[in-house]
């Protein structure tokens, strides 16, 4: 029986100001590092040298769209395609975007993307039209009524956990309420979190895993179990990004371990969970 394939995807922003603000590496040094660290690809907004560097280091490109304007959607998607991206992660609108507006944006994103041979998905994210579970699920429901299809979503459960002020013992119960949408997805941003913080450290700076990330691991495993239970996922690809944000973004703290070093450790831990669930 065909087996699903996990692709480990590095986040561009995990290497912002790496290794320090004053000695930041070039983009080529970063791509070489991503490959050396065992990642299969990188999520990156479209820039001129992206396709060349990705090809040189054998990295898959995942694209990025941030927009609340339907008039610019096709142009943004085309720019990603020209950089070699097929799967596109989209932030749509903002916290003031109405449901009607969000639905129209989502339909346009998918139509324009599929016309170009792309696979867009909409990230659940604070500050966008999917900033809360209620908004995200309402969008998905109306989209399905309008198109007859499940909405492709990029799942970053950290945002919902913080919005809903959840505790780790409720993650599975409260966050995996739409297995149909989880199983439809192909992009997941696996940043460890708790109900107070959308990003918790992976290590303690001494090479040991933190209690906070250990508390998150059962949820990560449950997400994979849910996805694997989807009958259509036996031979699909899934793209998982250990998306550790840097200090400059506000996600990491200056007193915490370096986020890129933590992302590399997190990739290994995610891989262990995946292999545990996919033993033949």
Task: Give a structural overview.
The chain has a single domain (5-277), classed as TIM Barrel. 41% of the residues lie in helices and 14% in strands. It has 10 helices and 8 strands. It has helices at 27-36, 50-57, 73-82, 99-115, 133-147, 157-163, 171-175, 179-184, 211-228, 259-277; strands at 5-11, 41-43, 60-67, 87-92, 119-123, 153-155, 187-189, 237-241. Helix 3 (73-82) packs parallel to helix 4, helix 4 (99-115) crosses helix 5 and helix 9 packs across helix 10. The longest helix has 19 residues, at 259-277.
Which SSEs are present, and which pair or pack?
Elements: E1 5-11, H1 27-36, E2 41-43, H2 50-57, E3 60-67, H3 73-82, E4 87-92, H4 99-115, E5 119-123, H5 133-147, E6 153-155, H6 157-163, H7 171-175, H8 179-184, E7 187-189, H9 211-228, E8 237-241, H10 259-277
Parallel strand pairs: 1-2, 1-8, 2-3, 3-4, 4-5, 5-6, 6-7, 7-8
